[in-house]
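Reopening this ticket.

The earlier resolution said the output was attached, but the attachment link was broken on my side. Pasting everything inline this time so it's all in one place.
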Amino acid sequence: MDLGIAGRTAIVCASSKGLGRGCAQALAEAGCTVVVNGRDAKTLEETASAIRASTGATVIAVVADVSTKAGQDALLAAAPNPDILVNNNGGPPPKPFREVTREALLEGLAQNMATPLELVQRVVDGMIERRFGRIINITSASVLTPLTGLDVSSGARAGLTAFLSGVAREIAHANVTINNILPGVFDTDRIKTATNKVAEMQGISIEEATKRRLAAVPAGRLGTPDEFGKLCAFISSAHAGYITGQNFLIDGGSFRTNF
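Inline output:
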């Protein structure tokens, strides 16, 4: 399928690896100019080079902490008028809720709620003026169903979802959409780190913690960044203008509900 976004410009936050990289790859394959972002210059340039080589797309690497104003300024200096914004940022590590400090709570809100909102505020009016915009927030399945130890992340991402739900309806008339992708367990560094932490919290081996996680996934496997990226690319496409304010759960069937 031709997604109809060749020549568009996309900013993909936190995209040097994992789900963000999967999104950057898929958008580059669709013909977009892609701004990739990360904090580690070496890893980021390796990612940018690999995407350029495999797609022939223009890929701009911006080393920056997206949660800072300076980092956001750097992203928008590289792409002042983005057509597509993929909000992504690392979440806090799993922790028992009794151990969550005020400082940790505020940091989680800054990283996973305030940061994406700030970026939306900075790009949305240009999208409205140009009559095209796609904003995708990478949140978590924990927005819908509790995941042990991810209370701060879940709360911040749920807050982001609720905040932007009304905004999505406010701007839909201009062919600007806001949607969220809610990943379950994917084959990324973060899931490995989180599984290790859960094993420690529950006093079990890493192997046992991994086995338990996979046992809860009807698909019987971890998701891949590639299939995640393909979903992101479709929601970003010219064909998705009538889809807004939605949560796309991609978790191998783990969340058991009829509706």
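Reporter confirms the inline version is readable. The chain has a mean pLDDT of 95. Helices lie at 18-29, 41-55, 69-78, 102-130, 151-171, 189-202, 206-215, 225-235.
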